[in-house]
Amino acid sequence: MRVTFMQSGGFAGAITGCRLDAATLDAAERAELEGLVAACGVSDSFQRFSPAGRDLRQFDLAIERDTATLRMSCDERCLPVSVRPLVAFLTARATPQSAAFAMPPSTASGAAPAAAGWGRFEGAVVARWADDGRTMTLVEDFAYLDPRRVRWQAPAGAVVNGASIPRAFWSVIGGPFEGLFRNASVVHDVACDARERRWQESHRMFHDACRCGGVGSAQAALMYYAVYHFGPRWRVEERTTLVAGGVHRERIVHDEPRPVPGAGEVAAIEAYFAGRDVKPDEIPSLTIPGVSEELP
């Protein structure tokens, strides 16, 4: 059995974590770890985040066995009581980690394994954080190859800050670089900044990248709805002019206005997805009672 643990978020925004292989621990520590895992009583992967905001500590825990890998992602308010002794044990052994600290994908129920038809990530997110605790600059190239074999590149030097995910939904899903959708958030940020493809394609890519990272179907659908209906939008104008007797083609990108949801609408959206299995192809045309998409 192997256990990987990461803590992020909180006011400091630091990332700490550890990886423990039961086979390499001494007998007493191995017995304690195995006992805590057994006592936590969790048999399925899950994600739980409270509406309290991104300043809560976020916990990401993976338990790898020969047959499956179970993943748990939640904030400190949603952490099950039975899991808290295990988290305390792992927190005591955690050390500072960089943004490249990777969690293994889930293969247990409740989340999709990265190889289950959702494409693949290439490389790891290696970044340098700015002093504001939110903005980071990629130090190495990173990419996502989606299920349609389209490559979404996040090159070294790209600056990302999570702005492509509407801030109104951070209280529901967590901050943009927390939990299982960290990789998806990075490539989505870059796509929405570069705007080389249509915004509709970029937001669908975010859904698929979330699933590739192990986000469950219901959570990924909610996040896709959030970015598709309230995220960045743009249109491209192609201009052709004659300059000094030659043809000059110019690509001009125009930002388009987008709706801004209120707190009540966010709550209605969260409740809608909590009780339904919404397919990703339904998201673009989905209308939710009590949710207005009027432009400002």
Strand order, sheet with most strands: 3-5-4-1-2-6
Rg, nearest Å: 21 Å
Distance between the termini: 53 Å
Number of domains: 2
User: What does the overall shape look like?
Assistant: globular
Number of helices: 7
Low-confidence stretches: 109-115
Give the strand content: 15-25%
Structural class of the helix and strand makeup?
Answer: alpha+beta
Give the SSE layout.
Blueprint: E1 2-9, E2 16-21, H1 27-40, E3 46-48, E4 57-64, E5 69-75, H2 84-91, E6 95-96, E7 120-122, E8 127-129, E9 136-138, E10 142-145, E11 151-154, E12 159-160, H3 170-173, H4 182-194, H5 199-212, H6 217-230, E13 234-243, E14 246-255, H7 263-274
Parallel strand pairs: 3-5
Antiparallel strand pairs: 1-2, 1-4, 2-6, 4-5, 7-10, 8-9, 9-12, 10-11, 13-14
Give a structural overview.
The chain is of the alpha+beta class and 296 residues long. It folds into two domains: 1-111, no CATH class; 112-296, no CATH class. Helix content is 27%, strand content 25%. A six-stranded mixed β-sheet has the order 3-5-4-1-2-6, covered by helices on one side. A hairpin with a 4-residue loop joins strand 4 (57-64) and strand 5. The longest helix is centred in the N-terminal third of the chain and has 14 residues, at 27-40. It starts with a strand and ends in a 22-residue tail after the last helix.
